[in-house]
Amino acid sequence: MRKIIEKCPSCEGEMIVTEMRCTRCETVVQGRFQPNIFSRLSADNLRFLELFVKNRGNVKDMERELGLSYWTIRNRLNEMIAELGFETPQESPHAHNRHDVLRQLNEGEIGVDEAAELLKQMQQGGR
Question: pTM for the complete prediction?
């Protein structure tokens, strides 16, 4: 099934759903229905959200399942948050303090090599 179109293909105005039909008994309900916030997500980000929920928000499990790094997953989450219309802090992967890096290492969110690299970059940056 296709994603609900949010913007008019002609003028880019907001689209609303005006009719819903039961697939079993063919009952039709007419009215003005607002799509939910998740209909704003691209197909890729909707699938990413499904995996995030499936993995109970555990980034380590997402890393294993997707074969992506912690920072790639974190960036995808930030993209999704922005796509939903929420503000996301503009941060670089290195804008963390020593405590954050050690916490992430302890919780298995990042590996030893990545933690060492982040700490090294912090030291070089004078943090």
Answer: 0.55
